[in-house]
Amino acid sequence: MKLQVISALLFISAITTVNGDAYFAIFNKNDYYSVMASQNIDAINNELEIVKTSTIVNKNAYEGTLLMTKAGLVKKISEKISLFKSGRQKLESCIKLDTQNVELHFLRLMVQENSPPIVNYKGDLEKDKIFIDKLFKTAPQDIQQYILDYSKRSKILNAKDF
């Protein structure tokens, strides 16, 4: 009976709509990080819908990071500013609640490294790098792999430091 209830809840939580079309989607970190790397606005919008309808831990951090990434891809200045501010608030609030979470610091580092100077969001870049370097081995294996993958194209993180 418990298995049936859990299955039903998962089924219901997996239904989402994008552009008015219903489909089934469950948050998947591999997909999330692939979308982040893609810089594709359609993929980011789809992933945003998945994150928004999910019940995952640190949902606001994932959503915030996607919003800030999307801000760099939209054309209207007012939309860029709005998306970036909203995303920043979501991510920063998660970090304040869980200051020792390596993944949250990694998400912030990715955004800070790639954000334009005009948004003034580079203040924690070096602190996050040191934090990640120091606690890398304590992070879950999947997070370690995401960090290693990102470090191949990063100017801040270097795989040799881990």
Number of strands: 2
Counted up, domains total 1
Count of alpha/pi helices:
8
Low-pLDDT sequence parts = 2-23
What shape does the CA trace take?
globular
Give the integer mean of the pLDDT values.
Answer: 88
Percent range of helical residues: 55-70%
* Topology order in helix (H) and strand (E) letters: HEEHHHHHHH
- Walk across the major sheet and give the strand order: 1-2
Strand content: under 5%
Largest sheet: 2 strands, antiparallel
Content-based structural category: mainly alpha
User: Termini distance?
Assistant: 46 Å
Radius of gyration: 16 Å
Question: Helices, strands, pairings?
Answer:
Elements: H1 2-13, E1 15-18, E2 21-24, H2 29-38, H3 41-52, H4 59-71, H5 77-97, H6 102-114, H7 125-135, H8 141-151
Helix pairs in contact: 3-4, 4-5, 4-6, 5-6, 6-7
